[in-house]
Amino acid sequence: MRIPPLKIAVVGASLGGLSAANVLRQLGFDAQVYELFAKGFDKRGGALGSVDLGLLRRIRLGNPDSADRAIKGHGHFYGDLWDYLFQGLPPESVHFGADVQTIADARSDRPAIVIDGDATAFDVIIGADGGKSTLRPFVTQKQPVYSGYTVWRGLVPMQGIDGPPSGSRIVNGIRYETLGFPCVGPDGPLWNCGVYMAMPQTEVAEPTRNRQVGSAMRDIPQWFVPLTKALFGQRNAQFWADCVKHGKVTPHPIWEFAADPVVAGRIALLGDAAHLSSPRTGAGAYTAMLDAWALGRAFNDASSVPEALALDNRAAVPRAKTLNDRSRRAGRAFAPDPRHSVSPTEVLDYLTRSIKALDWAAAR
Ligand SMILES: Cc1cc2nc3c(=O)[nH]c(=O)nc-3n(C[C@H](O)[C@H](O)[C@H](O)COP(=O)(O)OP(=O)(O)OC[C@H]3O[C@@H](n4cnc5c(N)ncnc54)[C@H](O)[C@@H]3O)c2cc1C
Which intervals hold domain FAD-binding (predicted)? Predict the structure, then answer.
């Protein structure tokens, strides 16, 4: 490596940010991570279906003090993966409760992160701050676009609950689907499940500052369980009723995005800040880790910071676009026309009327 040690700020301490910090510290850089939440995410669910464990190990194990430890198996509980990456870093290099409000001197060679009015300058700033990224506008004016559908995610202790749900139905050319798989949470086994359904943009929330924290809806809409029954039958509806009662059900509207460029001056985006995709791709967190790994390779191979960031941009833009294309292809079944998605209440009404008509016909 030909670049002298750098001081680098990583904004966001989720899977993307911690991956980047691990990789950058392996290169001998002083990477400091800033996270707006007050504490770590080792207890946070749910599960990721597909994770490249080889990549995850390479990201962490280059660190001198990182002994390997087992990673919990399929599906991979988010908190376990997070803790695995966190343990690769000196704890004092991750600053919790640090809300980066803006960047000062964004076009200079020493841009600064601003927290509570205090500016701290760095050689490079990495925006790993997720779907509603604060740093993104310093790099690109492109904005996430709503895909036309939402995944209702359920997380519930496995004990005593028959599951996971499984079913699909096409209603007027639009696919609705419920599925799930088990995972090991901090307090025992869990069902990690989802319902994919079309929903108009007027009924969903904008991207949150943290993809993993869809705030659990205190009031699940009244149509939710009846719709799962009308779409997928009584057994699946019972699962979702149990999930609402004993677990957590949260809506995750699917927003899509691919940054171009991902680098401006000395600010570089990675993870969901650079690309937002459907969970259907199974590759959002994976691509965040890949971004971090590739960023490290770029710094390793280049002889200057601008050269490293140019190398990174050249590889990261097509990576984000490829993921975005996959996400669009996956979404066509759930929302053929994202701008005109049908409301779940309309679907429930339609299905209820159809069922009544069938009952009437059968009774004659
Ligand atoms: C239902 C669902 C299932 C999924 N399944 C999979 C799967 O099977 N496989 C897979 O690879 N991916 C999956 N994903 C995608 C994956 O969860 C995300 O792509 C991944 O979490 C992105 O990580 P990130 O670090 O880029 O961003 P995030 O996880 O969004 O983290 C961003 C971090 O930045 C912090 N932050 C934000 N703003 C600031 C600020 N101003 N200052 C300081 N900190 C800030 C946030 O608090 C947060 O900790 C799934 C996603 C969903 C919704």
Answer: 123-299
